[in-house]
Design a protein that fits this description.
This protein is mainly alpha-helical. About 65% of the residues lie in helices and about 5% in strands. It has a two-stranded antiparallel sheet. Helix 2 (about 20-30) packs across helix 3 and helix 6 (about 110-140) runs antiparallel to helix 7 (about 145-180). It starts with a helix and ends with a helix.
């Protein structure tokens, strides 16, 4: 049930459209909580029906009208209750297509697996660069809310460390393949 809470939490900062929320997901949450546009819009409708979010249509002259969501007092209460209620377990199932591909790697040529591992490493290194840039951006924009910025930096650092660990793992896999070949 964390997607609704993420949407409410992000909307606490300021009223936002579904598109604004998707941009924030892609920029700040995607490494640990990805969400598709369709999921976001579906959940926004549900949250509004439950009166946890309210919306207003903003008329725009040169663009289509946009629906802007803001958190209701009931939404703030539900969010605070969720945040203060520690779950029995924080372990969540992880689906990792690349790990699954490596698991079945014996069905690929060694060259192909090495190619895929190198590509994976490049993608993770790109993520690391992005996380570092986002971390610097949080530093410069922290003047408004330094407390919130500190926690955002913590999650960005987590994402960075996970990506760095995955690069090390993939490099180790490549090294093992090269020793066998």
């Amino acid at each position: 049930m964390s997607l609704p809470h993420a949407l409410i939490g992000l909307s606490l900062d300021r009223p936002m459209t579904g598109y604004d929320l998707k941009l924030l997901f892609d920029k700040e949450l995607n490494s640990f909580w990805p969400a598709q546009m369709s999921q976001i819009y579906r959940e926004l409708g549900t949250l509004e029906a439950k009166e946890l979010l309210d919306s207003k249509v903003e008329v725009q002259e040169t663009r289509p009208d946009r629906k802007v969501y803001s958190v209701t007092s009931a939404g703030k209460q539900v969010f605070a209750e969720w945040l203060n209620r520690f779950p029995a377990s924080l372990l969540s199932p992880t689906r990792d297509e690349f790990a699954l591909r490596v698991f079945f790697g014996s069905r690929l040529s060694r060259d192909e697996m090495q190619f895929q591992l190198r590509r994976f490493i490049r993608e993770k290194q790109s993520e690391i660069a992005t996380f570092s840039m986002l971390e610097r951006n949080v530093e410069t924009s922290s003047r408004k809310n330094p407390e919130q910025a500190m926690y955002r930096r913590m999650t960005l650092r987590r994402s960075n460390i996970v990506a760095e660990a995955l690069v090390l793992w993939a490099e180790d896999c490549l090294e093992e393949l090269e020793k066998k070949g």
